[in-house]
Amino acid sequence: LRARVAAAIALTRNPPAPGPAASAVTNERKPIVFVYLSPDWKKKNACPPCKRLVADVENWTAAPCRFILDAKPPDGFDFDGYPCLHWNDRRGTGRKIEGWTNRADFLATWNATEAANGA
Prior knowledge:
Largest sheet: 4 strands, mixed
Number of strands: 4
Radius of gyration: 14 Å
């Protein structure tokens, strides 16, 4: 677990470079949200919420965070359904959302979390 946490911290300090088509907005350092997708989400009729999430966030340059899609959950991380979004708020408290409806619902949760932490 320590190794995974250290790797996540290193990733936030040294995020991978965005692709060539990324806008200037995506070049900024943003908080990272790890997205755990169903192992079979790419199959034709598997995990519609996973497919919706990927479609919604892949080119969302104005998102308040960066999404690491298809991340592997840390050992011992408990969640009940896919997709699961996992991040640390400004105070380092772990946050998660299980399921996906749309960007607006995600933003409402994200903004409430940030406001609660003095953003």
